[in-house]
Amino acid sequence: MTAQSRSSFVLITCILAGPLALLTNLLVCFILAPWVCGNGWEWPLHGVEFAFLLVTLTAGWLSASHWRRAGTAWPDESASSDTRLRFMAVIGLFINAISALQIVGVIVNSFILGACQ
Which three-class secondary structure state does DSSP give residue 64? Predict the structure, then answer.
């Protein structure tokens, strides 16, 4: 596996990691809600939420590091491999930032309203 294909694989994984972490976070929170409300323990729910936030932030950090490595210029219209890597890195950075903001919204909601409201 060449360095170019390895970078592409990592960036595709980073692009998919944020939205998948967000959707999995919502799914796991809905699955855990009856158990959490029945036992009165909210810490497992918050632990899951912070774990998925960490996944999203890590994927965003990897995208940012690949963008810096490929050059921090915005992707242009040339058909070079560096332009493609910069484009994928920028998309991964933005998608993970949006996913992280949505997960933070879920965390804030569960802290303010409580998990059982």
Answer: helix
> What is the 3-state composition of the chain as percent helix, strand, coil, each rounded to the nearest 5?
85, 0, 15
Tokens 């980073």 correspond to what residue? 14
Residue 26 and residue 35: Cα distance in Å, rounded? 15
CA pair distance 74, 52, nearest whole angstrom: 29
* Euclidean distance between CA atoms 100 and 78, whole angstroms: 31
Question: pTM for the complete prediction?
Answer: 0.86
Task: Give how far the C-alpha of residue 61 lies from the chain's centroid of Cα atoms, to the nearest Å.
Answer: 10
The structure tokens 């899951």 sit at 48
Confidence of residue 43 (pLDDT cuts 50, 70, 90): confident
Q: Which amino acid is at 39?
A: N
Question: Are residues 59 and 18 in contact, defined by beta-carbon separation less than 8 angstroms?
Answer: yes
Measured in degrees and rounded to the nearest 5, phi and psi for residue 76 equal -110, -165
Burial label for 115, CB within 10 Å (0-12, 13-18, 19+), is buried
